[in-house]
Amino acid sequence: MADYPKGPVSHSQVSGYLRCSKQFELERISQYPAPPAWYFIGGTAVHNATEAMDRIDPIPIAYSPEEIAKFWSDAYEAEIEAQFLTWPADEEWLKFGRKGSEQGHAYWFDRGLEAVNAYWAWRLAHPEFLLESIEERFDVVIDGIQFTGRIDRVFQTPKGRIIVDLKTGTRRPESGLQLALYRMGYELSHGLPEGHSGASGGWFMTKDGELHFEPIAPFTNRVLSGILKAYLAGVRQDVFLPNVGPACFSCAMKQACAAVSGPTPEALRYDSLLRS
Ligand code: SF4
Asked: Which residues form the domain of 78?
């Protein structure tokens, strides 16, 4: 797949490839058509609702519970409408939760509202975090590789700048790679030498309503550039290995994944493992 990606590299490509390169292949390269997943709809809507709230005023406003619920329900309904355009049969939308629970419309309505409330409670409780940017986009070049991204939030704090990513899942990412890539993108797009943004990184976990600092120092620009190059080499040499494990249960690509479902018609058509 020598011509992938046609545009710039993004963090979501790299993290998707690291999570399961077979899933990456099936979704992004073979383009196996899978219905939208409710966890994706809910997560996107939480991002959009909190973004709308932050954009009204960089100083957090003490919204009433009804006003917060309105921000949430507007964002949730808008995301559902958007997904209808791509996959009208909503009874097919994926409701997989962890350990087999069903997590559909009602589940994500409640969980999303809790998430938006958690974020806003944290914003109100931390006036020392001054909002520097919202959904800041960067398009940079590192060692000849075009790299793009969008940073959920950048805050200025008494202890320095912090790059924050909102997570609506239950577990924190296992490394600070994403935040470090954003630190690099931020510095290159602002014309700052490496490390001169003073930025640290943190995950805002909507589950517990806390900001969790994450070490990003080991990921120097040289390390990050090496990771981007290794990612491109893997994709362009068709290295797509199935990472079979607990995540397969809720994987939207499962039916087309030969290592999990066997030689199904979908796997025969979409999974390169079965191509001779
Ligand atoms: S079912 Fe598992 S191994 Fe197969 S693509 Fe999905 S996550 Fe990867």
From this structure: 35-127
